[in-house]
Amino acid sequence: MSGSAPFYQKHHRHYDRGFRSKETESKLSQYQTSSTSATTSSSSRRSGGLKVTSYSGLEASRLSPVPERVKPTYLAVDKENQIIGYVVPIFRGSQEFAAGFSGTEERRARDTAGYMARRDLFTSGLEMERSEQVSRREAMRGSAERISLNKRIHEHGEHFKRMNEDSLMHAPDFVIKPRSHTVWEKQCVRLHCTVSGWPDPRVVWYKNNVAIDPLSNAGKYKIESRYSVHSLEINRCDFDDTAQYRVSAMNSKGEQSVFASVVVKRFKGEIDESLPSPRRASTEDGPVSEYGINFQTHIVDKFGVSFGREGETMSLGCTVIIYPALHRYQPEVQWYRDDVLLSPSKWNHMCWSGDRATLTFTHLNKEDEGLYTLRVTTKSGYETYSAYVFVRDAEAEVERAPGAPLDVRCLDANKDYIIVSWKQPAIDGGDSILGYFVDRCEVGTAHWIQCNETPVKFARFPVTGLVEGRSYTFRVRAVNASGMSRPSRASEPVAAMDPADRARKRGTSAPWTGQIIVTEEEPAEGIVPGRPLDLQVTEATKNYVVLSWNPPGEKGLEGVMYYVEKCVSGTDSWQRVNTEIPVKSPRFALFDLAEGKSYSFRVRCCNSAGVGEPSDPTEATTVGDKLDIPSAPSQVVPTRNTDTSVVVSWGASREAKELVGYYIEASIVGSGAWEPCNNKPVNATRFICHGLTTGEKYVFRVRAVNAAGLSQFSPESEPVEVKAAIASPAPPFGISVLECVRDSMVLAWKQPSFAGGADITGYFLDYREVVDGVPEKWHEANTRAVSERAYRVSDLRENRKYQFQVRAANMAGVGIPSQPSDTFLCEEWTIAVPGPPHDLQVREVRSDSLVLLWKPPVYQGRDPVNGFYVDIKEADAPQEAWRGVNTKATESSFIKIKNVKEGESFVFRVRAQNNAGVGQVSAVTEPVVALTKPGTKEIVVDVDDNGVVSLNFECGDMTADSKFVWSKNYEEITDPSRLTLETKGNKSKAVFNTPGEEDIGIYSCLVTHTDGASSSYTLSEEELKRLLEISHDHKFPVIPLKSDLAVELLEKGKVRFWLQADKMTANGKVDYIFNDNAVSQGDKYKMNFDKNTGVIEMIMDCLTPADEGTFTFQLKDGKATNQSSLVLIGDVFKALQKESEFQMKEWVRKQGPHFIEYLSYEVTQECCVILKCKVGNMKKETSALWYKDGHQIKADENLGFTEGVLKLEIAQISKKDSGVYEVALKDDRGKDTSTLNLTDQGFKDLMNEVFSFIANSSTPLKITSTDEGVRLYTFVNFYNDLLQVTWHYKDAAIAFSDRVKSGVVGEQLWLQITEPTEKDAGKYAIEFHDGKAGLRRTVELSGQAFDDAFAEFKRLQAAAIAERSRARVAGGLPDVVTIQEGKALNLTCNISGDPLPEVTWLKNDREITSDDHCILSIASGKFASFTITAVNTMDSGKYSILVKNKYGTESGDFTVSVFMPEEAAGKKK
Fold this sequence. Notes:
The chain is mainly beta and about 1450 residues long. It has 12 helices and 102 strands. The strands form 26 sheets. Strands 48, 49, 50, 52, 53 and 54 form a 6-stranded antiparallel sheet that branches. A 5-stranded mixed sheet has the order 4-11-10-6-7, with no helix packed on it. It has a 5-stranded mixed sheet with strand order 15-22-21-17-18, with no helix packed on it. Helix 2 packs antiparallel against helix 6 (about 125-165) and helix 5 runs antiparallel to helix 6 (about 125-165). The protein starts with 6 loop residues before the first helix and ends with a helix.
């Protein structure tokens, strides 16, 4: 054991000797050396107890060789393997264990010698025991010293690891989260948390999402941070401190937040006088105190039943309105799934923006299916809203593969195994699921490993082969005959370790204080443990059996472990299962048992003292799945709920152990296809199936599920049609008085907001008298239901006060009564103006308009009603905002209100008028939002093929009880003489029997039992006229033509007459007429009628004089007819006949070799002329001969192509190339020629095109200077002598002279201005003539350009003069002169220069003068002579002549070599 590392090193992912620095290694070796002698020296010391204190950090660094007595300890670590302290277990080692920690062989030898000496000295048993205790204490001291060293080494390792931040950096994590508190006023509260993370996170506290600043409210808040423990203290809490507090930790790797709530309570009626006086806010109901506010919470804009698919994102949201709105007060917003509070995670995010709560799913899983509830809590209570979320399976990767399992969890985790459980999917893909595969993935990696080789059917599986101390996640895949499902969502991470170690790791410790405290008594050594207790089989399947037991009752035993034994029933042979390593935890899983056999099990305890007695054996356990598949549910009963949902209830499965839940499936009657209604098992026996199709009939079936599998399906339910359930209607409201006489009153009311899913059959009205403010007993006003929403109550007493209530009735029964009306006085009305209109209805609501209907007042006043006024205002606007819609009274009882603001909510009222004035206002309508609802249809007018005019309306939101109600001028149509109404499905049609002026009006259609589906159509006089015209066209139809009869020529000169009809059926017919006589198919006429395209044609081979006349095509299709004619007479016929004959000749020509494109020319960029023609129908024997002016110039034979281009290139065209060019094609099939005239105008046009290319290739005019003057020039790619150019000066042609000249040098065209002056400055241009517009290049020779050119000219002129006039030596002098002594030397050279140059002669670079021996002379100023009368050896040397004038200097050099005659003779010898 001495060679093994402690578990806390093995479990740490960073445990590696490579992390130890050289300093740490040296300290470790120093400690091992010094510890050898430390044990012997310390053996004489005695300790009276087990309370031991280790050295502090400073003392530990000194590595004292005299250790105190300590116990072996373990390091306590957090989730990120950071050391946070020590946890000291009881001592488990024996003397051998302690000796194993002594370090070296020498140390063990000394211990043994000391022990032998003490045994000889102390012979009694007591002394022997004391000696053993001393040995253990010494070993404990050494162990404590080693632990202290290990801590130091660990800290060094952590230090060096922090130097490499990448290995340890991780986002903040809350080890301990702050918890919520409820306190009384004036108490203090403290929120604290522990945060881990590297680098150290920055922690900020928030109150209702506002950062807390302790300095802004001194003494109120106190924020502390020590040893990764952060706290917020709130001093003397008051009512305003009730809030949601958030603490956020952030570093470079990320941010994490947690929440806690603080609720401050106050004793009833108690208000602290020391607090500031509460502010008062004026409301309609009076003043409201800031303390004790009664909040009203409303949840609007709610999310509905939602459907998603695995892998998608989804958001649920509601708008929350809290009144009164306090800026600094925030409610507590919570989300629940199936009544379980949700917390933010990587799967769901929660957001509260102050008025809207949102729950977002980042990646939907089937585990997310359920009933979601939003709970908004204020100090006045809470409001909730719930809706169901369904999550369907993602598309299978393999066709007919099952759905993914769900809800993967780890039920039991040990160092040897982890039991994984899951729930079976609702979809098996059509084939039974064969089993499941479990995959594991070590945390920190992305590699998944399959845990079982064969699929398991049981929904629990123990995973073995794990590495102790490492964390894993698991997932499950289902498999059937078709393939594998997608993997389930991964489970939460779980560590493979003993539960005791896990509990220790989960515990929190204070920061290291430098002390090790022994928390248990010293273990009893040498005692064999007793029997384990309460052994039982907790789980048994055909794959494994799980045993659990309790440790023996004795305390203080040194480290107890266990051996498990099994025995086949009927035998007495016990076999140990874990023979190699005993288990430390009282739980064990057995594998590899024979299925079907019975086994008994027992357990033995063991420690260093030995193995104890076995426990009582278990009862015989047969290996197999004890958990049976549940029985099928029964009595499935569907009940109507809404128009898209059905409530399904069923009888529970009677034989169901460990029931997980139920799956419900639905099928449209007759389809045979079953679809799951839920993808997550439900525990109840009642479920609402959503997402069904309205009007369809469904049957349902249910099956139960537990870990053993899915039950058989229940019997199918009775069919049920999906439509809203019928209920009694809601109460009417808005009761008002329309008329009052002495003994009766006419009451009106508004229809209920909910009709109960069926038509309202009538209303019942009750009344009661109110005496002195006290209402009496209710009395029935009518015993039979009234269908109108107005009723006269008779037999009342005058000048008495009454209240009324109304109840609505439908086929489900009579609803609850409305709220009692206001108190009305029964007295006769005598006012002159009318009473209020009633029964206001809003129809045809659109984004920019709506229609308001009403009924006239019952009380007319003194005179009949002659008009109505309509008022409008925004729903939330004050009373002063009422404004009129019509300035002039309308006589009708309806009005279309236009130009309303889209999305705004409006209310309306109506007033009637008579001659006496405007009467009372009607009751105000309910608010109406001006918005076109999705799917809104309009009335469409249609005229069918028989000319029948009809109005058509379609509704997509119909229910089973919906009906179409047609009206004219908003009065229901009951007379069938003018209109015939037809309804089929969701479409209705109003057919005009005989449309006429009496049908003019506004036609509308209303669909009952919908959300106001209605539309209208105005049939005006102009619209009626238009419809009658269309009707006539349909009754007497004309076949439309895309094109009238036309003629065209085809190949061989054939003539084609044709037209195209727009639309004709297969029964269509055509008659062909020529000069009023029908013609038919034959040799002369070929007819064709393509009914798919509508093209009708007649083809003639040729035209003769007898074919002159009129051609007509007559069309007939059913009762539709049409015709088209074409007149071919006179010049038109002759031209067509001539063209036909020409086309015939052309066809004949093309039977042999022929020209596709006749001879033409092309000028290239290089100004080459290419004569070309395109030929066709060629063969090898075809020859192509080129001629010019009748003389053959080229022959092309064996061309080798069927169709191609023949070319003749003229490289540099000139006048001699003018002529008539001809190409002749010839073979045995015929001959064809093509001629091109390039004479006179033809040649001129060609040259003009050449000139155009030359002009376009010219460069811009440039300016250069010479010693004679200024030159303007341009370059062209090619120059032709026939090219005509004109030079211009100031837009006038230049008259050339000796001073101004032009010319051409190669491809350069130039203009030379000799001796330019200021008068020559200006704009110059060169114009190229190409027979068309030509091309002109210009340059500006003025200003700076002229000055620069003139200066350059002067400089070059001066340089030329200087070059011509400078002194020169023009030859005559040799390089070397060899002469015999005594001879005469005479050399002469030419000199020039203006002025005459000065002449100087030099010998060996020294000037010489003329004398008798050396004569220097100049003749005529042009010849310089050098004469030596008689040379001698002294005359040898280098001679130079130097000429010089004001323009320059030049020299000529020669060498004179004088030799003796003897030297010459010697040289000859």
